[in-house]
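Hi R.,

Quick one: here's the Alpha/beta-Hydrolases superfamily protein sequence you asked about.
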Amino acid sequence: MDSNDEIIYDSEGYIRIYKSGRAERFHGLEFVPPSSDPVTGVSSKDANVVPGVTARLYMPKLDSAKKIPILVHFHGGAFCMGSSFDPLAHNYITSLVARANVVAVSVNYRLAPENYLPAAYEDSYAALDWVLSHKNDGPEPWLTDHGDFTQVYTSGESSGANIAHHVAMYGGSKLCGAVLIHPYFLSSEKVESDEFNPALADKLVQLWKIVCPTTIGLDDPWINPLAADAPPLAILGCKRVLILVGGADTLRDRGRAYCEKLKESEWKGEVKYWEAPGKGHGFYVFEPKSELSEEQDKIIADFVNKI
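And here's the predicted structure, written out as C-alpha coordinates:
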Protein backbone atom coordinates (compact mmCIF):
# COMPACT_ATOMS: atom_id res chain seq x y z
CA MET A 1 0.00 0.00 0.00
CA ASP A 2 1.18 3.52 -0.84
CA SER A 3 2.06 5.23 2.44
CA ASN A 4 0.17 8.31 1.24
CA ASP A 5 -3.02 6.22 1.34
CA GLU A 6 -2.62 5.70 5.08
CA ILE A 7 -5.66 6.86 7.02
CA ILE A 8 -4.61 9.42 9.64
CA TYR A 9 -8.06 10.42 10.87
CA ASP A 10 -11.39 8.62 10.70
CA SER A 11 -14.66 9.88 12.13
CA GLU A 12 -17.22 7.29 11.11
CA GLY A 13 -20.09 8.75 9.13
CA TYR A 14 -18.42 12.16 8.87
CA ILE A 15 -14.93 12.27 7.36
CA ARG A 16 -11.86 10.17 6.60
CA ILE A 17 -8.52 11.92 6.03
CA TYR A 18 -5.47 10.37 4.38
CA LYS A 19 -1.79 11.14 4.83
CA SER A 20 -1.68 12.54 1.28
CA GLY A 21 -4.12 15.27 2.26
CA ARG A 22 -7.01 13.61 0.47
CA ALA A 23 -10.34 13.56 2.31
CA GLU A 24 -13.50 11.52 1.95
CA ARG A 25 -16.57 13.25 3.38
CA PHE A 26 -19.81 11.49 4.22
CA HIS A 27 -21.73 14.31 5.87
CA GLY A 28 -22.89 17.78 4.83
CA LEU A 29 -22.52 17.11 1.10
CA GLU A 30 -26.06 17.94 -0.01
CA PHE A 31 -26.53 21.30 -1.73
CA VAL A 32 -29.70 23.26 -1.00
CA PRO A 33 -30.31 26.04 -3.53
CA PRO A 34 -31.11 29.58 -2.40
CA SER A 35 -34.81 30.28 -2.21
CA SER A 36 -37.67 32.27 -0.78
CA ASP A 37 -38.83 30.38 2.29
CA PRO A 38 -42.65 30.19 2.33
CA VAL A 39 -42.87 29.71 6.10
CA THR A 40 -40.61 32.52 7.34
CA GLY A 41 -40.58 34.83 4.32
CA VAL A 42 -36.76 34.82 4.38
CA SER A 43 -35.12 35.08 0.95
CA SER A 44 -31.62 33.88 0.11
CA LYS A 45 -29.18 34.16 -2.78
CA ASP A 46 -25.55 33.27 -3.45
CA ALA A 47 -22.69 35.65 -4.19
CA ASN A 48 -19.02 35.51 -5.13
CA VAL A 49 -16.93 37.25 -2.48
CA VAL A 50 -13.38 36.85 -3.78
CA PRO A 51 -11.93 34.17 -6.08
CA GLY A 52 -12.53 30.81 -4.42
CA VAL A 53 -14.83 32.18 -1.71
CA THR A 54 -18.61 32.33 -1.95
CA ALA A 55 -21.36 33.24 0.47
CA ARG A 56 -25.09 32.87 0.90
CA LEU A 57 -26.97 36.06 1.73
CA TYR A 58 -30.23 36.06 3.67
CA MET A 59 -32.86 38.78 3.84
CA PRO A 60 -35.86 38.68 6.21
CA LYS A 61 -39.33 39.80 5.22
CA LEU A 62 -39.20 43.54 5.79
CA ASP A 63 -42.00 45.57 7.34
CA SER A 64 -40.32 48.98 7.05
CA ALA A 65 -37.47 50.86 5.39
CA LYS A 66 -35.48 50.88 8.62
CA LYS A 67 -31.97 49.49 8.21
CA ILE A 68 -31.23 46.31 10.13
CA PRO A 69 -28.16 44.63 11.71
CA ILE A 70 -25.74 42.64 9.56
CA LEU A 71 -24.60 39.20 10.70
CA VAL A 72 -21.44 37.78 9.10
CA HIS A 73 -21.65 34.08 9.92
CA PHE A 74 -19.23 31.14 9.76
CA HIS A 75 -20.52 27.56 9.74
CA GLY A 76 -19.07 24.79 11.88
CA GLY A 77 -17.49 21.48 10.89
CA ALA A 78 -14.05 21.35 12.57
CA PHE A 79 -12.51 23.37 9.70
CA CYS A 80 -12.84 20.35 7.40
CA MET A 81 -16.56 19.67 6.91
CA GLY A 82 -19.80 21.40 6.07
CA SER A 83 -20.70 24.35 3.90
CA SER A 84 -23.00 27.35 3.85
CA PHE A 85 -25.20 25.45 1.41
CA ASP A 86 -25.97 22.19 3.22
CA PRO A 87 -29.47 21.70 4.63
CA LEU A 88 -28.53 22.02 8.31
CA ALA A 89 -26.62 25.28 7.82
CA HIS A 90 -29.21 26.76 5.45
CA ASN A 91 -32.19 25.91 7.64
CA TYR A 92 -30.48 27.18 10.78
CA ILE A 93 -29.58 30.57 9.31
CA THR A 94 -33.00 30.93 7.69
CA SER A 95 -34.66 30.43 11.07
CA LEU A 96 -32.23 32.75 12.87
CA VAL A 97 -32.64 35.52 10.29
CA ALA A 98 -36.41 35.34 10.61
CA ARG A 99 -36.26 35.61 14.40
CA ALA A 100 -33.46 38.20 14.63
CA ASN A 101 -34.52 40.36 11.65
CA VAL A 102 -30.97 40.71 10.30
CA VAL A 103 -29.26 40.60 6.94
CA ALA A 104 -26.98 37.57 7.14
CA VAL A 105 -23.92 36.65 5.09
CA SER A 106 -23.02 32.98 5.56
CA VAL A 107 -19.42 32.56 4.39
CA ASN A 108 -18.38 29.42 2.52
CA TYR A 109 -14.67 29.39 3.39
CA ARG A 110 -12.19 26.83 2.06
CA LEU A 111 -11.84 23.58 4.02
CA ALA A 112 -8.86 21.58 5.23
CA PRO A 113 -7.10 19.32 4.40
CA GLU A 114 -7.32 20.44 0.77
CA ASN A 115 -6.63 23.95 2.04
CA TYR A 116 -4.84 23.83 5.38
CA LEU A 117 -5.30 26.56 7.94
CA PRO A 118 -4.89 29.51 7.95
CA ALA A 119 -6.78 29.43 4.59
CA ALA A 120 -10.19 29.52 6.32
CA TYR A 121 -9.15 32.55 8.37
CA GLU A 122 -7.82 34.36 5.30
CA ASP A 123 -11.08 33.68 3.43
CA SER A 124 -13.08 34.94 6.39
CA TYR A 125 -11.09 38.15 6.68
CA ALA A 126 -11.66 38.72 2.96
CA ALA A 127 -15.39 38.08 3.42
CA LEU A 128 -15.61 40.66 6.19
CA ASP A 129 -13.75 43.18 4.03
CA TRP A 130 -16.19 42.46 1.20
CA VAL A 131 -19.20 43.05 3.45
CA LEU A 132 -17.76 46.28 4.86
CA SER A 133 -16.92 47.53 1.35
CA HIS A 134 -20.69 47.92 0.83
CA LYS A 135 -20.94 50.69 3.42
CA ASN A 136 -21.16 53.40 0.77
CA ASP A 137 -21.81 51.37 -2.37
CA GLY A 138 -21.42 47.85 -3.70
CA PRO A 139 -22.84 45.10 -5.90
CA GLU A 140 -25.21 43.62 -3.29
CA PRO A 141 -28.32 45.78 -2.70
CA TRP A 142 -29.40 43.71 0.30
CA LEU A 143 -26.35 45.10 2.07
CA THR A 144 -26.24 48.62 0.62
CA ASP A 145 -30.00 49.28 0.87
CA HIS A 146 -30.94 47.43 4.05
CA GLY A 147 -27.80 46.82 6.15
CA ASP A 148 -26.96 49.00 9.14
CA PHE A 149 -23.17 49.31 9.09
CA THR A 150 -23.10 50.58 12.67
CA GLN A 151 -24.50 47.19 13.69
CA VAL A 152 -22.21 44.60 12.08
CA TYR A 153 -21.77 41.37 14.04
CA THR A 154 -19.57 38.38 13.41
CA SER A 155 -20.94 34.99 14.47
CA GLY A 156 -20.14 31.32 14.15
CA GLU A 157 -20.69 27.81 15.42
CA SER A 158 -17.95 25.50 16.75
CA SER A 159 -14.96 25.99 14.42
CA GLY A 160 -16.97 28.84 12.93
CA ALA A 161 -17.08 30.46 16.38
CA ASN A 162 -13.30 30.13 16.52
CA ILE A 163 -13.16 31.92 13.17
CA ALA A 164 -15.66 34.53 14.40
CA HIS A 165 -13.32 35.36 17.31
CA HIS A 166 -10.38 35.90 14.98
CA VAL A 167 -12.50 37.92 12.57
CA ALA A 168 -13.61 40.09 15.50
CA MET A 169 -9.97 40.68 16.39
CA TYR A 170 -9.25 41.52 12.74
CA GLY A 171 -12.31 43.74 12.26
CA GLY A 172 -11.66 45.94 15.27
CA SER A 173 -13.99 48.85 15.86
CA LYS A 174 -15.69 48.32 12.49
CA LEU A 175 -17.66 45.59 14.24
CA CYS A 176 -20.34 46.10 16.86
CA GLY A 177 -20.08 42.64 18.39
CA ALA A 178 -19.44 38.91 18.17
CA VAL A 179 -21.62 35.85 18.80
CA LEU A 180 -19.68 32.66 19.62
CA ILE A 181 -21.84 29.53 19.59
CA HIS A 182 -20.23 26.42 21.12
CA PRO A 183 -16.70 27.65 20.27
CA TYR A 184 -14.01 25.17 19.27
CA PHE A 185 -11.09 26.26 21.44
CA LEU A 186 -8.43 24.02 22.97
CA SER A 187 -5.40 24.33 25.25
CA SER A 188 -2.68 22.19 26.76
CA GLU A 189 -4.51 22.37 30.10
CA LYS A 190 -7.19 19.79 30.75
CA VAL A 191 -10.63 20.98 31.83
CA GLU A 192 -13.53 19.24 33.58
CA SER A 193 -15.72 19.05 30.48
CA ASP A 194 -13.04 17.00 28.66
CA GLU A 195 -14.28 14.10 30.79
CA PHE A 196 -17.81 14.29 29.34
CA ASN A 197 -16.45 12.44 26.30
CA PRO A 198 -12.70 11.75 26.56
CA ALA A 199 -12.59 10.01 23.18
CA LEU A 200 -14.10 13.05 21.48
CA ALA A 201 -11.78 15.38 23.37
CA ASP A 202 -8.82 13.38 22.06
CA LYS A 203 -10.19 13.43 18.52
CA LEU A 204 -10.56 17.22 18.61
CA VAL A 205 -6.89 17.49 19.57
CA GLN A 206 -5.87 15.04 16.85
CA LEU A 207 -7.94 16.82 14.23
CA TRP A 208 -6.52 20.24 15.06
CA LYS A 209 -3.01 19.02 14.30
CA ILE A 210 -4.22 17.68 10.94
CA VAL A 211 -6.13 20.74 9.73
CA CYS A 212 -3.28 23.04 10.82
CA PRO A 213 -0.05 21.07 10.24
CA THR A 214 2.12 24.14 10.91
CA THR A 215 0.62 24.58 14.38
CA ILE A 216 2.88 25.00 17.39
CA GLY A 217 0.45 22.86 19.40
CA LEU A 218 -2.58 23.29 21.62
CA ASP A 219 -1.41 26.69 22.83
CA ASP A 220 -1.25 28.03 19.31
CA PRO A 221 -3.18 31.33 19.34
CA TRP A 222 -5.30 30.10 16.42
CA ILE A 223 -6.89 27.40 18.61
CA ASN A 224 -6.23 28.89 22.05
CA PRO A 225 -7.07 32.61 22.18
CA LEU A 226 -6.14 32.57 25.89
CA ALA A 227 -2.59 31.38 25.28
CA ALA A 228 0.31 33.46 26.56
CA ASP A 229 1.37 34.32 23.01
CA ALA A 230 -2.16 35.14 21.80
CA PRO A 231 -3.14 38.77 21.16
CA PRO A 232 -4.71 40.06 24.40
CA LEU A 233 -8.50 40.02 24.48
CA ALA A 234 -8.35 43.59 25.75
CA ILE A 235 -7.64 44.79 22.20
CA LEU A 236 -10.97 43.52 20.86
CA GLY A 237 -12.35 46.48 18.96
CA CYS A 238 -16.02 45.51 19.20
CA LYS A 239 -17.99 46.43 22.30
CA ARG A 240 -20.26 43.43 22.79
CA VAL A 241 -19.66 39.64 22.92
CA LEU A 242 -22.12 36.79 23.46
CA ILE A 243 -20.84 33.29 24.29
CA LEU A 244 -23.23 30.33 24.18
CA VAL A 245 -22.34 26.78 25.27
CA GLY A 246 -23.98 23.43 25.87
CA GLY A 247 -23.99 22.28 29.49
CA ALA A 248 -22.98 18.74 28.45
CA ASP A 249 -20.61 19.76 25.64
CA THR A 250 -17.02 18.54 25.77
CA LEU A 251 -16.02 22.08 24.76
CA ARG A 252 -18.17 23.75 27.44
CA ASP A 253 -15.34 24.80 29.74
CA ARG A 254 -13.37 26.28 26.84
CA GLY A 255 -16.23 28.69 26.22
CA ARG A 256 -16.58 29.39 29.93
CA ALA A 257 -12.87 30.16 30.24
CA TYR A 258 -13.03 32.55 27.27
CA CYS A 259 -15.92 34.38 28.91
CA GLU A 260 -14.15 34.68 32.26
CA LYS A 261 -10.88 35.78 30.68
CA LEU A 262 -12.70 38.45 28.71
CA LYS A 263 -14.36 39.73 31.88
CA GLU A 264 -11.01 39.80 33.71
CA SER A 265 -9.21 41.60 30.91
CA GLU A 266 -9.00 45.34 30.42
CA TRP A 267 -11.55 45.13 27.61
CA LYS A 268 -14.32 47.61 28.40
CA GLY A 269 -17.17 46.01 26.49
CA GLU A 270 -20.28 44.04 27.44
CA VAL A 271 -20.02 40.25 27.67
CA LYS A 272 -22.97 37.91 27.98
CA TYR A 273 -22.96 34.17 28.59
CA TRP A 274 -25.67 31.53 28.20
CA GLU A 275 -25.55 27.81 28.85
CA ALA A 276 -28.08 25.25 27.64
CA PRO A 277 -28.52 22.84 30.59
CA GLY A 278 -27.69 19.23 29.76
CA LYS A 279 -27.20 19.85 26.04
CA GLY A 280 -24.32 18.68 23.87
CA HIS A 281 -22.39 20.23 21.04
CA GLY A 282 -24.53 21.73 18.30
CA PHE A 283 -27.79 20.42 19.79
CA TYR A 284 -29.82 23.25 18.24
CA VAL A 285 -29.00 22.09 14.70
CA PHE A 286 -30.39 18.61 15.29
CA GLU A 287 -33.43 19.66 17.36
CA PRO A 288 -34.29 23.12 16.03
CA LYS A 289 -37.81 23.16 17.43
CA SER A 290 -36.86 22.22 20.98
CA GLU A 291 -37.54 24.69 23.79
CA LEU A 292 -33.83 25.29 24.45
CA SER A 293 -33.02 25.73 20.76
CA GLU A 294 -35.70 28.38 20.45
CA GLU A 295 -34.51 30.02 23.66
CA GLN A 296 -30.97 30.16 22.31
CA ASP A 297 -32.19 31.74 19.07
CA LYS A 298 -34.13 34.34 21.04
CA ILE A 299 -31.07 35.19 23.13
CA ILE A 300 -29.03 35.74 19.96
CA ALA A 301 -31.83 37.76 18.37
CA ASP A 302 -32.19 39.97 21.44
CA PHE A 303 -28.42 40.45 21.64
CA VAL A 304 -27.95 41.66 18.05
CA ASN A 305 -30.98 43.92 18.42
CA LYS A 306 -29.70 45.21 21.80
CA ILE A 307 -32.78 44.11 23.72
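The chain is about 30% helix and 25% strand.

Cheers,
M.
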